[in-house]
Amino acid sequence: MIELKYGACRAEPRQDASMQRFRGHRVGQFIHWGLYSLPAGRWEGEDVEFAAEFLPRVAKIPQRRWEALANDFTLADFDAGRWADTAVALGARYMTVTTKHHDGFCLWPSAHTDFHMGNTPSGRDVLAELVEAYEARGIDVFFYYSVLDWRHPDWRFTLENDGDHEAFARYLDFAMKQLEELAERYPSVKGFWFDGTWDESVKANGWWTWEVERMLKARIPGVVVNSRLRADDFGARHVDSNGLLMGDYESGYERRLPEPWDHSVAGRDWEACMTIPQASWGYHQGQWAQSTLKHPFDIVDMIAHCTSLGGNFLLNFGPRGDGSMQPAEAAIAGKVGEWLGVNGEAIHGCGFAEGWDYPGWGYFTRHGATGDVFAIVTRVPASGRIRLQLPAGHSLAGIRLLGSDAYPFKRLADTVFEVELDTSRAGPLVFALDLAALDGSASLKEPNPDVLN
Ligand code: JFZ
């Protein structure tokens, strides 16, 4: 172990109530909304086939013209309650919203810049409205904050000379003040999701990322912070120079998931974030994005995949410039939520099922409190049948199809069982397994009359 002043704060996952609550959520709603939602990937009549929130950089838009978008950010069709309703429909337990993205525009009236919601025609504090609407529906709110800031005069990508060092020190001071402001104005926030920390300038200031984590934790008891914030004394990111995770959970899975058989990731908390179109976080109106929307059942597959490895899944939404949700995204949320409404007991509060090998046809999950094991079938084999391979010493007393009843199965060997799938049902099937000790001494339930032994 090398001596680190700004490394990980602990070696093991947090076990306090706030962390356990976050861990049990499993499904969250990510929201990217800002001035980029107005042009929505199109500038001067041309679609720019790149993430919509990168439009000012990719299309090299002059700063004045970008700032002028604030005059059109009228919130003509914005209703925080309607957004929160889509999160409820999705079955999300938390929501993470972009308080400030790379362009520097703030969704709250910040005292430390003029580039904020308060200086748009409505002058409304969108962040306050969102916190209120989501929390009224029992959904935890998290803040995304980009440390990278394309607009601030003191931002630096690299630190080449004394002038850069001085400017960047002022920038870090500004960002710290904004974060203190967010913590003070919205004290019910449950966590922070940092982004834009990959540049050399930030990596050379690991102390500041450590200080941000400390400050937030001192001000907001239980607050949860992602690993992407952090760099250590030597500029190592996410994981410190001793191999320990910084922040409270790993947030490096972006538009990709770990291999489903990679059980090593289950040892720490993590979250994957995912776009609904192929590659844009902000609303992109072009065919390029609109033709690549993911099917709700493929999203269900990803949710099950993450849960089975002890991770959360944060599904991104890009509301439109007028504040309305994209109807296609709202519809997808509804379909995913319909599945979760029937099968959520295999997801919420569930995680990695120790001892259960990865089955090619889907995933096993286990509920943290009850110990119940679930089989989630996302890839139906050509035979229409799956094999349940139980850990040594276990037997199967019965299985139940979620949203239905006891379901027939066949014993092939002491710990191997076969289930013929009802392929007439739409969406991944989930079976709750009623396990018993192999010697029969500890059968948990009455013998199942449907067993086709
Ligand atoms: C960042 C942002 O640039 C993007 O606009 C969006 O907000 C997203 C959630 O985060 O993009 C990233 C960040 C990290 C990686 C890739 C894209 N990464 O670690 O591979």
How would you sum up this structure, described in words?
It is a single chain. The protein has 453 residues and is of the alpha/beta class. The protein folds into 2 domains: 17-344, Alpha-Beta Barrel (TIM Barrel), CATH 3.20.20; 351-437, Immunoglobulin-like, CATH 2.60.40.1180. The protein contains 11 helices and 19 strands. The protein has helices at 17-25, 55-58, 63-68, 80-90, 126-136, 162-185, 200-203, 206-219, 287-290, 296-308, 327-343, and strands at 27-31, 42-43, 46-47, 94-100, 140-146, 191-195, 224-225, 250-254, 270-274, 311-317, 350-351, 362-367, 373-377, 385-389, 394-401, 406-407, 410-413, 416-420, 429-437. The strands form 4 sheets. An 8-stranded parallel sheet has the order 7-6-5-4-1-10-9-8. Strands 11-12-13-19-15-16 form a 6-stranded antiparallel sheet. A 3-stranded antiparallel sheet has the order 14-18-17, with no helix packed on it. α4 (80-90) packs across α5 (126-136), α4 (80-90) crosses α11 (327-343) and α6 (162-185) packs parallel to α8. The longest helix is centred in the middle third of the chain and has 24 residues, at 162-185. 4-nitrophenyl 6-deoxy-alpha-L-galactopyranoside (JFZ) binds at residues 32, 51, 53, 195, 252, 254, 273, 281.
Describe this protein with a few key phrases.
single chain; 453 residues; alpha/beta; TIM Barrel; Immunoglobulin-like; 2 domains; six-stranded antiparallel sheet; 26% helix; disordered C terminus; binds 4-nitrophenyl 6-deoxy-alpha-L-galactopyranoside
